[in-house]
Amino acid sequence: MGREEKIARSVVRAMTHPEDKTDGKPKASRLGRILALLSTLLSLYCLVLGKLRPADFSNLRRKRWGVDDDDYVRSFQPDGGESADEPLKAIGDMGFSGSTFYATADQRYLVKSIPRYAEHSFFSQDLLTPYVQHMAAHPRSLLVRICDFLAVSGWSLGRLLRTAPSHHIVMDNIMHGREAAKQRGDPDWENWDLKPTSYFFPERDIAGGALTSDATKSQLADEFHDKIVLRRDQAEDLFATLEADTALLAAHNAVDYSLLLVRIRLPGPAAAVSEAQQQQEPPSWRTGVPSADGKHVFRASILDFFWAKHKAQPKLMTLLIGLWNLVTRSGHMSITTTPNEYRARFLGMCRSIVEVRD
Question: What InterPro entries does the annotation carry (predicted)?
Answer without folding.
Answer: PInositol-4-P-4/5-kinase_C_sf, PInositol-4-P-4/5-kinase_core, PInositol-4-P-5-kinase_N, PInositol-4/5-P-5/4-kinase
